[in-house]
């Protein structure tokens, strides 16, 4: 798995690179100190996963993530954040990041997250994503056109999306709707294709932006 490390602090970049260099299945293909450098770097090397800081000079991690997601076959983006940066994390997920971790996460969590993202999955558990969105969604206006996009979904697909946003797993959704888990996977795959969503994290973001679900009391 090829990984690029993007952070404006040299010690953090060096620390991640050192940890990842000790993994037999991971290769660090480059480092960058801001989003602009990251885009230039990824013009010259291929990466499966980008570890992306949010707040950087020249171009921040959110802008860089948005631009990466416009590319053909973009890498997975793992955003580094703290829970003090809720709105940044929300914006990063909206931009297309596959997930986020706290900057002080243990090394083994970072390595696991990279492997999950490289496999095309979302790093952030749906329940964690929902808690984050509950904290910030009342301060963020719904994105233009999102409510109308709900009309693309069948009633059952909307049911599944709402339960995903509540943080339920596929097995829990199947029990809630009295259907097979394979049926849930089919509905989830169909709604994500219709809405052009990359993973469950983006599905949860869309559910909030469209107004399908509201922040918890």
Automatic annotation (TrEMBL):
Residue stretches making up the HTH luxR-type domain: 146-211
InterPro entries tied to this protein: CheY-like_superfamily (IPR011006), NreC/VraR/RcsB-like_REC (IPR058245), Sig_transdc_resp-reg_C-effctor (IPR016032), Sig_transdc_resp-reg_receiver (IPR001789), Tscrpt_reg_LuxR_C (IPR000792), WalR-like (IPR039420)
CDD domains attached to this UniProt entry: LuxR_C_like (cd06170), REC_NarL-like (cd17535)
Keyword Transcription regulation carried by entry: yes
Domain Response regulatory residues, every copy: 2-118
Positions of post-translational 4-aspartylphosphate modification: 53
A Pfam family of this chain: GerE
Keyword entries, A-Z: DNA-binding, Phosphoprotein, Transcription, Transcription regulation
Protein name, entry field: LuxR family transcriptional regulator
Origin species: Streptomyces griseorubens
Taxonomic path: Bacteria, Bacillati, Actinomycetota, Actinomycetes, Kitasatosporales
